[in-house]
Amino acid sequence: MDQGYSQGMGSAATTLSATATTITSINPATGAPLGEVPEMSADEVRAAVERARAAQRAWAELPLEVRCRRVARFADVLMDRAEEVIDLLVREGGKTRLEALGMEVVVVADLVRYFAKHAPAILAPEPVPLHLLKHRASYLHFVPRGVIGVIAPWNFPFSIPIGEVMMSMIAGNGVVLKPSEVTPLIAHKAHELHVAAELPPDLFQVVTGRGATGAALIDSGIEYCVFTGSVATGRKVAAACGERLIPYTLELGGKAPAIVCADADLDRAAQAITWGGFANSGQVCASVERVYAVDAIHDELVARIVEHARSLRQGDASASDDVDVGAMAWDQQVATVERLVDSAVAAGARVEVGGKRRPGPGQFFEPTVLTSCRQDMDVMRKEIFGPVIPIMRVSDEDEAVRLANDSHLGLLAYVFTRDRARGKRLAERIEAGTVMVNDVLNTYACPETPWGGVKQSGIGRTHSAIGLRDLCEVRHVNHDRVAFPRELWWYPYKQGTFRALLRGAKLLFGKRPWKR
Ligand code: NAD
Description:
By secondary structure, the chain is of the alpha/beta class. The protein contains 16 helices and 20 strands.
């Protein structure tokens, strides 16, 4: 066990579901315990928020450029200690070393460098040209909100919450992170790096526990909540925030369709879909969760995806680097995947590869390719969040777009075609937060682009200028440019003034024959 987190945190190690006071993190590839964290009470959460708030007051006083320079040190420390972080991500999350590097560590390091460089421009006061009142001027300024609560899932336990933590601090806030109960140790590791980077230790707090601890965080006086997780929990978070009038961002589930056109580069499409469906064991909100292949290329595409899927090596990534598909982080998710695959098969889907969980030890579901899928199957409608690629034959691109949009979710979507103009045309017809042409997943690693979904995939955006500004309050200042003794419409109201204003209004806003 990692000793650091278990000392003084309760008695014997217990499983995730069996204790009221501690949570034991396990290696999902072996079942071995890794360490314990406390299940924190509402009072402890409130105290953590207060500590963050006290540290935030001095932090917010620092010039933005100074905050940027100081947060940038986190990237220095992170890259110095990358191997240690990757090792824990592999052992606690079940993912492969390459995924821990590319999808977690590099994402945070790049995000920190990007915002440390660009936040001063993004958060600089912004003039608003006034439409009517030309004798006055307006500008917006972006000020820290206070304490941001970040509630996180288990699939990317480092890049998702720590990206938000870094952006929150750059924006001048304190942050309290409630990591998933499935992967709490990596949050403590992030805090260790934060301290090593000589950032104010109390500015960033970690509160561990299950759903009740997350609910307590929303109830502890935070000024904003960034929630990433399931649609079901997102509804509860929105209701709790609504009750307290706390603004929030929700990053929820996905059901990304991949449309493969007749003119697609089939080798690239097959490789992208295989990686997009199985990377991180399919536990990605942007995973390829359904494929619509037009009739002309369906069989050839399936053959290539099946060939790639058959070549994948699955196993314990903490024991070997020669692993393509790791373990699944959460045992209950394995059961969900199993149910969805079984029900699809019972309804007529054909298993081309995989199709079942692997016997223990560890939590593994075989990389699975299903064909003969239909839109009415649960596997095509519900989020799978596991290594399964269901494929459906469609007659043409129009049918594919219609089916892609026939979903309550709309996070990511993918189009494969050699014709870039067609790709862009199709992309613009798809109801999703992001559509990629001839690629999958990667835009989460672009801190400069917005991340978030339409429909039930979420509310608001993280990353990008939009995401950074959302971590600030927008305050509007309106001031005079010319010093008149009084405004025309002030008291006393007179008929002459009314007539003059009416004439002016008609002239300005009425019919404009000279414009035709
Ligand atoms: P989850 O909703 O079960 O849990 C997420 C977090 O919410 C956990 O920390 C949990 O303890 C906490 N929580 C539970 N009940 C709560 C409550 N009542 N109040 C406050 N917090 C509460 O989700 P999960 O299983 O950890 O993650 C998987 C889901 O996350 C998938 O649906 C996936 O698509 C989604 N996800 C979305 C994105 C995105 O960017 N849109 C990214 C990653 C994961």
